[in-house]
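Protocol step 4 of 5: obtain the predicted structure for the target chain.
Materials: sequence only (see below). No template structures provided, no constraints applied. The aim of this step is simply to have a reference model before the mutagenesis design in step 5. Sequence pasted as it appears in the construct record:
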Amino acid sequence: MGDLQGDLLAGRPLISFVRYNAAFEVPWIRDNLGIEITEDQAAGLEAMDNPKNTKLLAQVGEHAAMKQVQPAHFPAVFDIEIH
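Step 4 output (structure tokens):
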């Protein structure tokens, strides 16, 4: 499949997409996000529809976003002029 970088809708760029990943593995979460969890907690994170996982999933997502999302990932159209 590749990265779809050259694919265009309507013959011109209309959307942009950046994929961010967080591995639900104890070493990855510890080393990349600084969060200590158990193997059981890591295995349970894949059940995103389980309300018991909401708090930890949010914590992992917030920490991953702080590390991975960069201002350069957003085109200038997202810039807001503040008066």
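Step 4 remarks: Helices lie at 26-33, 39-44, 54-68. DSSP finds three helices and no strands in the chain.
Proceed to step 5.
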